[in-house]
Design brief:
With about 210 residues, the chain is an alpha+beta fold. The chain folds into two domains: about 1-30; about 35-210, no CATH class. The chain has seven helices and seven strands, in the order ααβααββββααββα. It has helices at about 1-30, 40-45, 60-70, 75, 140, 145-150, 185-210, and strands spanning about 50-55, 85-95, 95-105, 110-120, 125-130, 160, 165-170. The protein has a five-stranded antiparallel β-sheet with strand order 1-2-3-4-5. Helix 3 (about 60-70) packs across helix 7.
């Protein structure tokens, strides 16, 4: 009887360990993308900034419909759900708001990607930051020359370029993949940039355009 009780206790402890181990993973999968160290990262991503305010947003049903309308089913099936909380970093220089930083998760060849954009108040990319990427040629994607190619890109540029098919025209079509051995990640970065811009357009810029 003692052996039976010990086995029963062992099973209960194992079940507890499994639940505790799985719970954080499920929680992580149901969230947006946060900077690992915003106090350190914000000044690097948005030079000249002096402070930031982190705000959290989950899309309303109307906003979700607007997001889905701009990201078709092919795009949405590639990685994670859209109806999760997102972190928007409002960026200030003194008391003046000068822009935003926002990041998303996206699927790469060897694992998840985490890509952040720094935007001015018009929704134009000032810089972008790859927080997470796995592969032999990650350094080529984090090279400053590759990042400079995206300065000035806005959502309207994605009207001419499909990052899922990898086809189109305009400035995005002219950007070369810095690491041919990581082609999936290159298009993953482009998809992440579009997703960032669409979300920020719905959450921030479309509301600003409606104001008198």
């Amino acid at each position: 009887m003692i052996l039976s009780r010990c086995r029963g206790l062992a099973v209960e402890l194992l079940a507890c360990v499994l639940v505790c181990a799985v719970a954080p993973v499920a929680s992580f999968a149901a969230t947006g993308c946060d900077l690992n160290n915003p106090d350190r990262d914000v000044p690097r991503i948005f030079p000249g900034s002096t402070r930031y305010v982190a705000k959290y947003r989950s899309p309303t049903p109307m906003e979700l419909a607007a997001i889905v309308a701009q990201l078709d089913e092919r795009f949405r099936a590639i990685y994670d759900p859209l109806s999760v909380p997102y972190t928007i970093y409002e960026i200030y220089r003194g008391d003046e708001k000068v822009g935003y930083i926002h990041g998303v998760n996206q699927k790469g060849q060897f694992g998840g990607l985490q890509v952040f954009v720094a935007l001015d108040l018009a929704g134009t990319i000032r810089s972008f930051y790859i927080q997470k990427m796995v592969g032999r040629s990650v350094a080529k994607f984090r090279d400053g020359q590759f990042g400079k190619a995206f300065i000035g890109i806005s959502l309207k540029d994605f009207q001419k370029y499909d990052p899922v098919a990898g086809k189109g025209s305009g400035p995005l079509a002219a950007i070369a993949n810095p690491a041919p051995d990581m082609e999936t990640d290159f298009y993953g970065v482009l998809r992440a940039l579009k997703k960032n811009l669409v979300l920020m357009d719905v959450f921030v810029f479309s509301a600003a355009r409606k104001q008198p």
